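yo

u said u wanted the structure for the complex thing, so here. seqs first:
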Amino acid sequence: MPELPEVESVRRGVDEWTAGTTITGAEVADPRILGTTSQRRIDPSAVSGFASAVTGAHILKAERRGKFMWLSLGEATAPSSETAGSGARSPLTPELGILVHLGMSGQLRIHSPGEELHRHTRAVLRLDSERELRFVDQRIFGHIGVQPLVHGYGRLVPASAIHIAPDPLEAAFDPERVVAELAKKRTAIKAALLDQTLVSGIGNIYADEALFRAGVHPLAVPARTRKNRLTAVIESATTVMSDALAVGGTSFDALYVNVNGESGYFDRALLVYGRGGQECVRCGTEIVKITVGGRGTHYCPVCQKVPRYR
DNA sequence: CCATGTCCCTGCAAGC
DNA sequence: TGCTTGCAGGGACATG
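structre next:
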């Protein structure tokens, strides 16, 4: 389940292989990958539309915000060094991007054209006719599509990612703003952490890890929690994801494979996620598993005190 | 507007 | 053994 660290890990690999290349062709093996999980009825013209829209495009670079990744597209001219004005169709001011969301089980892999297709390959981009970027996704919770780039929180982002907030690893991230917004929430803090419009990039694994490290109960209500506790949670989320990125991301179900085909490992550093019934690494108490917002949630009932509100 | 619930999809594990 | 059932989860969307 790729979250920010895993997606960033993939982005780096993808950028190395794709930046500066030209898309010489594209294939969509499963049209459902072009839609979202709630828009699965894909017009047949969308398949050829996708291929024709990306073929001939020049990939400037691979970018990311939260768990959303995209290839910014531009003219195939040699880029100069600095941005000057807002000249029309400058390669430095891309207007289109190819959005890729990995969903639950998405992988991006680089292959040579002749190599056997993985069973769950959903889409393929040919790069300079000598490499292929393949989007493999077992569960089809991910999606890919061409979108206009629009301004959001100081950057150009794909239109469908306009609503998500900056993630903790980007310059526009403002911890004080996030804590202030978080403090208005009356839902469980675990659910709030998964709200990508508040902070992006945090998924189910790192939400549990951040709460454990900050000593905050997943059912605590932000609006009734001390600001310094909320700050600790946001700081913990930032730290745990930075640490995960440093070792290549999390993987324990073999579904996540980075662009070079190797798994990233961080599971040994997980302190509570997936440890229901086991002893807390800090105090030995049995880790409890509950459901919050429809997601499996793990916590230590001693290290993360049950909030008592009146 | 805010919060909560449902659905999408597949493969695996558990139960009978 | 072989079937059925339950479970996992990110995000779009519907509902309260």
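The first strand of chain A starts at residue 23 and ends at 28. Residues 32, 36-38, 40, 103-105, 120, 138-141, 185-187, 191, 293-294 of chain A lie near DNA strand B (CB under 10 Å from a C1').
cya
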